[in-house]
Structure formats: C-alpha cells, structure tokens
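User: I'm curious what two different proteins look like when written out as structure tokens. Can you demonstrate?

Assistant: Sure. I'll show them one after the other, since each token string lines up with its own sequence. Here's the first protein:
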Amino acid sequence: MKYNMLKKTAILFGSGSALLFLYRFSPLYDYITLAYVQEQSSYFKGFVEQHYGLTVAIYMLVFIVSIAFSVPSSIILTLLGGYLFGTLAGALYATGSVAIGVASAYSVFRLFLQDTLRKTYKERAQRFEKLMNEEGASYLLMLNFSAVFPYFIINALAAIARVPIVTVIWTTVVGFLPQGIVYAYAGKGLSSIEKVQDILSREIIFVFILLILLACIPIVIKRYKKQIEL
C-alpha cells in the first residue's frame, strides 16, 4: 500500500515537473507577459473576429493549464480576456477557466497526494481542518477574496481538510469573479497599461478589502455566539 502511494506520488511529481520544465523553456513562458500581450493585441483581436469560438477555446485552455500548475498569469490573462471579449464575457471566461483549473488541481491532490500531505503537514493539516469545520466555507471564501494565497496552497489545504469539491468550486467562483470583472474591465484599455499595479486604484483596493471583511462576518458571528454560550 505504502509502495503504491510512493509510486503514484513519484509519477505525479515527475509529470508535473516535466510539464513545468517544458513550460519554462517553451515560447509560452515568454508569451504570457504584459509586454507581449500588448505587442500582439492587434493580431489577437483580428483572430477573434475571424475565429471567435476557437479563440475562446484556446484562451480558456491556456488559462486552465496555468491555474492547474500555479503559473502566475491569471491577472494578465484576465486583462487579455477583457480586451478580446469585452468586460462581461472576458470575466466569465476567466472565472470559468479558474474554476476548472482549481477543480482539476484539487482532484489531483485529493486522489493522489491527500494522505502524503496529511502525514507531511500533520499539525498544519489538523489546524486547517479544525478551522474549516468551525468556520465552514466562509474561511475558504476569505482566502479566495484575499488573492494573497496561491491556488496551489488553497487546493492543497482544501484536499487535506477533505472539503467537498462543490464547496471548493463555488468559493473559487465567488472569490474570483469580482477580481475578474475589475481586470477584464481594465483590459479594455490594454494598450495604455504600463504595469499591472496601475489598475489597483484606492477605490478598487477598498472594494477588495470590503469583500474580505464581508466574508469574515459569518466567522465573527459564529465566534461571538460561542463566547455568549460560554
């Protein structure tokens, strides 16, 4: 049993490492950058006009793979989606891609690495599982709203805590959609963006902070009720 688990882990790690290696030394690594996307924006726009469905499929496939393997490109790809497809469609395609990518990565963790991760990070796993049992989906939603923790970490923790995949998906969608709308809207002016940080005005940062606080409300209420009962 232990040998089979080690074998599965080795195969998965080897496959993931190979894919990441291919990505790092492939042209794709240089393509998912703000400078390249801006440089090729006119070509991409023309391709959309001629092959809309194919462009959406390619766009979502690249996005899904990048999320599944924790490639830091979600903001740039969402900007591109907004530029190519408009704010609403771009945000929806990006959100759908993130959800599928997260679900794929979570499934791999849950099926192949759950026991290994629980043994390796026993104390942390127990703390997170306790938090999930006490706070429920609100805690996972707060992590998604914060946009601080990579999906790789959230997926691993969710798999360790045996969070239902439906909960993982809906918290991902709700957590990413506001960001997706903001970045897709900003993508309409893609050519004028000098750096990603330019998008984050004080108003937008305030909205993101407000969303995090809203996700914390159920957690605060639960803890307050527990203190009253004590």
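Here's a second, unrelated protein for contrast:
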Amino acid sequence: MGGQRPDFRRGDVRDRRPPPLPLPELDLSLRPEDKGVESLSRQIKMTGRAYPLFDIAQMILQKPERHTVIFNTKKNAEGKPVQPLFVCALDDTLWLSEDEAVAHVLRKHFTTFYQAERTATEPPKGKYTFVAQCSLSGIILGPPNHHDYQTQLHKLHTERFSRMPFEEYKSRVRIVRDEEVVKKWVDDLSWKTEYVCLNMPEPLRLENMEAVEKHFRETHKENIIKSVDSHVLTGAAARLLRSADLVRLVRSVWEDQRRFPLQIATVLSQQFSGHGLQFFKVNKTVTHVCIARPHYLDMAATPVSEGVRRIVEYIDAHPKSTRRHLVEALAPSPAPPPAPAVPNNPATAAAPETPQATPEQTAVIGDLHWLIHQGHVIEFANGMLETAKKPLPKPEPRPAPALAALPPAAEPVAASEAVVPEPAIEAAPAPVAEEAPAATSEAAPTEAPAADITPAPPIAPPAEPPAAPVESSS
C-alpha cells in the first residue's frame, strides 16, 4: 500500500557529511626529544641489546613529552609565506593570523596592559518588557528597537561568530520576556565602563574595546606578536594550542606517523648515529639499533678462550636461548642451602638473601659482554641470543669476452649489458675483532636492569622474529 520506504542505510548518512576542512599549508615535522634519545642511547650501550628502530619510534610517539613539533612556513614563487605564522611572546602560543593573536592577547592577558573601571551613569529611558538574547553565547543584546541594538548585534557576530553567515546567525537570536533578564540588561547599561592604560608615561582612558584594540595595535603589537618562518614547540604544548586549525594539523601528522613512523624513525637514526650506535637489518626488512654491527667470529682463524668458544657453540646449538639459559647451562648455580626453621614471629624473620653470582657465572657474563660489544653475538630486545652468521661469499665476476674476437669497427658494449658485481652485504665492515679474553679475564659489570623500552609490534614494515638469521659483515 505505502510507497517505497526511504533508505536509511549508513552509507547514505556518510554521503551527506560535509567534506573536511583543508589543513593549513605548513610543513610540520616531529622530532624525538634530544634528552630522551640520549637516555635511550646510554641504556642501549649499557644493556648491549638490539632494539627494532620502528618500535622505538612508536614508543616516542605514545607520549607528547617524548617529542617536539616543528612548524615551518612554505614559500611561494615570490619568496613570501603561503600561510604566515605568528607567535605571542607572552605565552609562546602560535597563530595563523595577526588578528587571532591580537584577540588572544586581549582575551587572556588583558590585565597586563589595561584595567577596566565602571562608573554609574544614567539608565536607559523608557519601559522595556523584552530583550533580544544570543542563544549561542547567552549575551543580552537589548530590545530590537533600541538605538544600539544593531551595533551590538554586528559586533558580537564579528567577534565571536564570523565564520557563520550573518543571516544564519541572526536567526539564532531569540526574544526573551523574562523580567530578570530585562532587569540585568538595564543594570548593565546603568554603568559606564572605561579602560585605563597601564604602564604608560601619562594616564590614558579609553571608552570602549574598539579603542582598546586600536591602542594595543599601535603601542604593544610590535613587541608582543612576532611573525616567524619557523617555530618549535614541545609535543604537550602543541596539543594545547588554541588555534583549531593548527590543532587539526598536528593531529593529522601525528596520526600519519602512528600508522608508519618513517619520518621520526629517520631522524631517530641520525640522532642514534651521533651517539655512536650502529644499525643492521634482520632478513633485510626490520632495522635494529645496537652497540655494534653483527661481525662473524671465525674461531678457526681467530684464537679465542675456551669460555668464548663454549658460549658460541652453545648459542649455535640452542636457538632462541636467553642469557639466563646460557649462564645456567655453562655455570650452573649451586644448590640452595636448606631453609631455616620458621620463627614464631614472622615480623622478625629475615628476608631471603638474593643469590650471588659464582666466579664461574661472572666469567661467563664477562665473556658474553665482550662478544656482544664486538658484534659476534646479538642479544635482542626480547632476550634471545644469536651469533653473527658467516657472510655469503661474493660471486666472482664473469670474464669479459676477448676483444680480439670483435671486428675492428664493432660498437662498444652497452652499459646495460655490462656485468655488474653483486652488491655487498648491507652491514658495513666492522673493526677487526680484538683478541678474545681468557677464561680468567676480569668480570664485566653486572648486567643492567631490563630496559624501559617495551616495543609494541611495529605497524610497518612487518616485524620478523628477532631470532631470525642476521646478516653480518666479513
């Protein structure tokens, strides 16, 4: 009987949504906080572990205090900024226009420059039974037939709702017949507000806010509001910006980096390199940062101690072994002494003693420390141990054809047909390994506590198990 039912599917609702507003034309980049990177570098050097670079980048993006936000203007063909930037010197806030910055200062720092004083004046004449009130802000505009009504209406629209068409804003004004509201409007007009300029050589009074804004622009603007081409904010400050368009821009860039943190990982690798750390790839995909690049230890050609040999042989024979497994296998802990009788008063019972490492365990830890810092053994972030693998031999280049067999007028061989040697392994050659320490060498420092870093599964590129074969240099 009835006609066709309307289609209320969700897809139709999305189609009616307005398109997103364009983002400001600015170059925005994220940079890891320098002190945080320095602390991470010390931790990597102390533990000797290898961490996925992109996992560290994701960890830095998790909290705003771990990175800074850099704003840069784009220049047009004439060398002028496409979108200017303005900084308020009072609170280091960033703005896209000078008008926004001026309005911010007069709203948040008004008492720094001016003082409002109210004096009694003659109330409006006549009897009023209703007034117009803005439904968006609650500001009372007065009766529509009052001589100052149109001025107040246009002023409020310009100051607070300039993005809304005036006719649409006008439709949001309502008529209120409440006696208390009418009385409040009359009381407000029974007082005159003047603005006294502070920190001036001579006293000066201004009649209204228009005169205040004009005075601020002429007297204080040049010292308070600066035009800049570049500005740096902390991650926390960037998220507290009062410019809605800048907040959207920061959010957009941050979300892009959360999906694939290539930009911040690139800067992070440069910062780590400046602290002397090295990089290598697992299965040619997942980049790791470490204290030393993998470097194969040829025990047949390099004299090593028996302790070092046992460690390498154990790790090769037991894939995915950890430091604890290694120490317990090569230097087992002695059996614990029998537990003493439990006293009647638990409060006086002594706390159990932490077992101390034996001299044999200390020697194993010292040899492992040397192997890790030479790149012969890799200890991944999850604790897995792996030895650096022997690099594949480089293929020999094919001999070029004899030139005598070519006719005298033959053309030279094309560049695309020339035989090019295979590229070298990605990890650059590490320094020649020092002679391995003897089994009686001094013990290395006790292993540091596990790092704070809790790498999340990398979003991109796809992570590989840390125990996968690692390419090394010869």
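A detail about the second structure: The two ends are 84 Å apart (CA to CA).
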